[in-house]
Design a protein that fits this description.
- By secondary structure, the chain is an all-alpha fold.
- The protein has two domains: 78 residues, no CATH class; 262 residues, no CATH class.
- It is built from 14 helices and two strands.
- It has a two-stranded antiparallel sheet with strand order 1-2.
- Helix 4 packs parallel to helix 12 and helix 5 packs antiparallel against helix 7.
- The chain is globular, with a radius of gyration of 21 Å.
Length: 346
């Protein structure tokens, strides 16, 4: 009876029905992303502890320390929220909100696996757009706005320096990253991330090994992860753009980095590692795409954490030189390769 009423309402008011469904999907997506990002914080701390031969979280929540995240969240939410004297208060207050909100722009067009229903793969994506690859790459680039707002409004020269470093790094690496996205789209004959995944009978990491390496390096740089975290180089600029933040606002800026870390890793899996594609697993065939997607995602996340604990931070001039002088020319070579191979397999 309820289902028939919903069907009748959808037929009578399709716009309102679409809006309600969109809001529900967005709420579910935001909840899932935040929960997974919290687990990612815990995973990184545990993996880094193993790599560095020390204990990770192991006090709150038993041996595994799974409740440490909740303890940290309570601590941040209850700490005093201090606004520096001389800060641009409206921009200062809105910077963490803008930083977190922009991540949802990426999440809305990014597939989170697929399910097999009636023999068909149904991608789990809120907005399946024809140009979703370009849209996601563009949305990733505007995330620097939140960091720049935080650095500029704090009335602190070190915060401003960290913000400028973030903008310089973003400009240097968004260009080769965008060219790599174009190369993938040429080979897949589509800018739709879902169709790019479906086109990978052979992973594009093997078809475009140079592009895969370039995209991975550019992604790590765009995410501000070690060894490219010059916006938060504590030895040089205290803590970068978020130096003056405390309490819940600092928590939002900190947590946003892990949400972007998660979304960027998912994008890498989709563009170069076949997304959710893999052999059908018997018995649980309807969720076998999710199993493959989850396995690939965990491998990528652990690999990026491995890079973080293994390499020292580069200087900002080394970072910009790498982007403009090495990755950009190589990305153009990879683009030519993609055109040639794409025409051959067309």
């Amino acid at each position: 009876m309820v289902l028939s009423a919903i069907t009748e309402f959808a037929a009578q008011e399709p716009k309102i029905y679409g809006l309600v469904i969109g809001l529900i999907a967005a709420a579910i997506l935001a909840a899932v992303i935040n929960v997974v990002a919290m687990l990612l914080v815990w995973l990184e701390r545990k993996v880094m502890g193993d790599f560095q031969s020390r204990y990770g979280p192991n006090r709150v929540g038993g041996r595994w320390g799974v409740l440490q995240l909740g303890a940290d969240a309570i601590k941040l939410f209850t700490k005093e929220d201090i606004i520096p004297r001389g800060a641009d208060k409206p921009v200062y207050v809105w910077a963490p909100i803008v930083a977190v909100a922009t991540t949802m722009l990426v999440a809305g067009a990014l597939p989170f696996g697929a399910l097999i229903i009636d023999g068909r793969e149904i991608p789990l994506v809120v907005a399946n757009m024809d140009i979703s690859a370009f849209y996601i790459e563009a949305a990733l680039s505007i995330m620097a706005i939140g960091a720049f707002m935080a650095g500029w409004s704090s009335n602190n020269k070190y915060s401003m320096l960290g913000a400028f470093r973030g903008i310089a790094r973003m400009i240097a690496y968004e260009v080769p990253m965008g060219i790599c996205v174009i190369s993938v789209a040429i080979m897949a004959h589509s800018l739709n991330v879902v169709e790019i995944v479906e086109a990978q009978s052979v992973w594009f990491a093997f078809a475009q090994p140079i592009g895969f390496v370039i995209f991975a390096i550019a992604l790590i740089t765009d995410l501000g992860r070690m060894p490219f975290d010059q916006t938060e180089a504590e030895e040089e600029i205290i803590a970068g753009y978020n130096t003056e933040y405390s309490g819940i606002r600092f928590g939002l800026l900190y947590f946003q980095e892990y949400i972007v870390f998660l979304l960027g890793s998912i994008l890498l899996v989709h563009l170069y590692l076949g997304g959710w594609k893999g052999p059908v697993i018997p018995v649980i065939s309807f969720i076998s795409p999710m199993i493959w997607f989850f396995m690939k995602l965990v491998i990528v996340l652990v690999a990026l954490i491995w890079i973080r604990v293994s390499l020292p931070r580069f200087r900002i001039d080394q970072v910009t030189d790498l982007g403009w002088k090495i990755l950009l020319p190589l990305s153009m070579v990879n683009l030519v390769w993609a055109v040639v191979v794409g025409m051959y397999f067309a």
